[in-house]
């Protein structure tokens, strides 16, 4: 008999979590105005709000923290981090930042100007924010397949080369660089193939442009290339990682994802002129060049985290867990963005709560129902997150309305996945009795989902 799959680690330290009663949860939800961001974390049993900064560090990472060098300039921990990044990516210039959006802020301050167009595949919201706040345009060139949640294709995060070429042909002089997000977070943690990265590189070369990878989940992307793309099965994750970055000029990184640290980020590039451009903004915004917003101990832990998380076994354990949850949902017929992404499952709320009108926010309603059911906190990635149209001030109902269940790295076991799946099944089974959703009683003008206040529609 073939041995079953098991995690590639064992547990050395545990943190208790607490269950609650439905009555408590209903009370807490009222106090939180039906917005799960407003809950206290200890009111949550299983927290799937995000996979950002919520991972569990390894014993080697904790050990590295004790050896962190906190020197202001030229710390040994900086060089450990820089050497690891250079070894993995080939990029010789590295600037640490306090998280991913800070890397965007520092690099884009030098590169993005009013009137520019930055094509890419579903820019992450902070990336888009840092482009739009400079009065430039973030042009989405993702493949159309990404919009159909039920379509099963291996690389749903890809850039559509035809859309990209059109942008380059029409507006080459306004394009400072192309940005490719690996994996494509916004499309559901969907990977980008090596062939697609190569096609982007070829177009960039044809038009004399540079390419940045928004690399928060580059290691998960490498795992999908190894397991789904022809010709990569026998390559190591580190070989695939290097091959991916050979096709880029620079990267911005949120280390809170595939670096498996709680806080941190960086810029890396092979071009001195970009390094010089970023340096000017790092010092006033983040700090001196060899720490840029990070503690020495955090840089030391990140160096180890990057090394560990570019090993197959660690990634296989992680992706296997996400796929395990997906398989349980399949058993119950619950619709989600297919195939399962690298870091999360995105439930298609519009296909679950079919009786809740879109004006009453089905995905937010499902988020509330799942919390009420079992104290599980997911995150609406839907009509509330989409904000209002800046001109008409109408809600934007054009996109997908999803409940994201983000899985923290090395934190929960498959037993927790079973609880999540069954809790969702219980809500799914009574979906026809859920006919009303929520209405907004107060909202901020921008990024309203963090602070929005809601009430149930009776
Ligand atoms: C999280 C993330 C960012 C921003 O990083 P922070 O560390 O949260 O500032 C940028 N791009 C992608 C794809 C991300 O997932």
Fold and architecture overview:
α7 links the parallel β5 and β6 (211-214). With 458 residues, the protein is α/β, with parallel strands linked by helices. It has helices at residues 22-31, 59-66, 76-89, 100-111, 125-132, 161-171, 194-206, 218-228, 237-245, 272-285, 296-308, 312-332, 349-352, 362-374, 414-429; strands at 46-47, 93-97, 117-120, 137-140, 178-181, 211-214, 250-254, 265-269, 344-348, 376-377, 379-381, 402-406, 438-442, 453-456. The protein is built from 15 helices and 14 strands. The mean pLDDT is 96. The radius of gyration is 22 Å and the shape is globular. It is 39% helix and 12% strand. α4 crosses α10. The structure holds pyridoxal-5'-phosphate. The site of pyridoxal-5'-phosphate has 15 residues, from α4 and α5.
Q: Give the termini distance in whole angstroms.
A: 55 Å
Element order: H for helix, E for strand: HEHHEHEHEHEHEHHEEHHHEHHEEEHEE
Report strand %: 5-15%
How much helix is in the residues?
Answer: 25-40%
Q: Report the count of strand segments.
A: 14
- The average pLDDT score comes to 96
User: What is the spatial order of strands in the main beta sheet?
Assistant: 2-8-7-6-5
User: Which consecutive residue ranges, at least 5 long each, have pLDDT under 50?
Assistant: none
Number of helices: 15
- Ligands and ions found: pyridoxal-5'-phosphate
- Shape, please? globular
Structure classification: alpha/beta
